[in-house]
Design brief:
Blueprint lengths: L2 H12 L2 E6 L2 E4 L1 H18 L5 E3 L4 E3 H7 L1 H4 L6 E5 L3 H12 L8 E8 L7 H6 L9 E10 L12 E11 L1 H21 L5 E4 L6 H13 L3 E6 L8 E8 L3 H6 L10 E8 H12 L8 H8 L1
Parallel strand pairs: 3-7
Antiparallel strand pairs: 1-2, 4-6, 5-6, 7-8, 8-12, 9-10, 10-11, 11-12
Helix pairs in contact: 2-10
Organism: Ciceribacter selenitireducens ATCC BAA-1503
InterPro entries: aa-tRNA-synth_II/BPL/LPL (IPR045864)
Protein name: Aminoacyl-transfer RNA synthetases class-II family profile domain-containing protein
Length: about 300
């Protein structure tokens, strides 16, 4: 049996994930959520002393900000928009007839001013830019949000709606690249605490089309993105559970993020894929958390 499907079936049978009838869209059982909450507390133990400002955005963001971000130029295949019925009573009657006939009923659905958040950090940049120049020490932010990416799959580690915990740093080039290296080192230590085998490798985002191939090659050549990989549904193709990204001054220039002296800020972020990390823990230690190694339980629950 396919390893991805076998693991997914076991997750359903155990109640850790709950089937919805859509690939990559799952409910979560209480034990699954408890593991994620415990892992977030572990993240906090490593990051709390840095003094990041905690901000929590909803899983939808301003469409105008989304459009300005350029996401549709690079990743149109992953984007999700929010549409609503905008017709009159006659249109509603037509909609109901289409539904009764099992036909397409979406003709009067129009795009709203909200899109689904593709990454936890996307609403942050325009928000911070509106505050004016950054403080002398730069900016450091702690984010967590549900995110959406349209890539349906029966691989439980590739979900369409998932949670991302991020730290985002804004400052000089040296400041933000030092931040990224610090979290790469911390990421390895965190995963060692919970008994997960990892490797870190250079990576690229899934840019779309022919032009995207050039962008992906450039990203790899400049070592702008690294991923922490853990085997979950494949040993030969391990899953990215953390990412470490240096954006240079791209977001600073786009959003008008400036340092205290008026120069353009560089940015970097570290992201934790919370569902993926939980799945890695269940895959490597078993579906019964009470049977996990004592050292792992101590790291997560004390």
């Amino acid at each position: 049996m396919d390893m991805q499907v076998s693991f997914l079936d076991r997750l359903f049978e155990s109640g850790l994930l709950i089937e919805t009838g859509v690939d990559g869209l799952y409910g979560r059982g209480g034990r699954f959520e408890d593991v994620i909450a415990a892992f977030e507390r572990l993240i906090d133990r490593y990051g709390a002393a840095d003094g990041a400002e905690a901000i929590r955005f909803p899983p939808g963001m301003n469409r105008a900000y989304f459009e300005k971000s350029g996401y549709m130029k690079s990743f149109p295949q992953l984007a999700g928009t929010v549409h609503s019925f905008c017709g009159n009573e006659l249109d509603h009657v037509s909609l109901l007839k289409c539904m009764d006939a099992d036909e397409d009923w979406t003709a009067e659905q129009k795009a709203t001013d909200i899109v689904l958040t593709p990454a936890a950090c996307y609403p942050l940049y325009p928000t911070i830019a509106k505050r004016g120049n950054l403080p002398e020490k730069g900016g450091l932010y702690d984010l967590q949000s549900y995110c959406f990416r349209h890539e349906p799959s029966n691989d439980p580690a590739r979900q369409q709606l998932f949670r991302m915990r991020e730290y985002v740093c804004m400052g000089s080039q040296q400041h933000v690249t030092d931040f990224r290296q610090t979290w790469m080192d911390r990421g390895v230590k965190i995963m060692a605490e919970v008994g997960l085998p990892v490797e870190i490798d250079v990576a690229n985002d899934p840019f779309f089309g022919r032009a995207g191939k050039m962008l992906a090659n450039n990203q790899r050549d400049q070592n702008l993105k690294f991923e922490l990989l853990i085997p979950i549904t494949s040993v030969s193709n391990p899953t990215a559970c953390m990412s470490f990204n240096y954006h240079q001054d791209a977001f600073g220039s786009k959003w008008g993020l400036n340092l205290a002296d008026g120069s353009v800020a560089h940015t970097a972020c570290v992201g934790f894929g919370l569902e993926r990390i939980a799945l890695a823990l269940f895959h490597h230690h078993g579906l019964d958390v009470d049977q996990w190694p004592a050292s792992v339980r101590a790291a997560l629950w004390g």
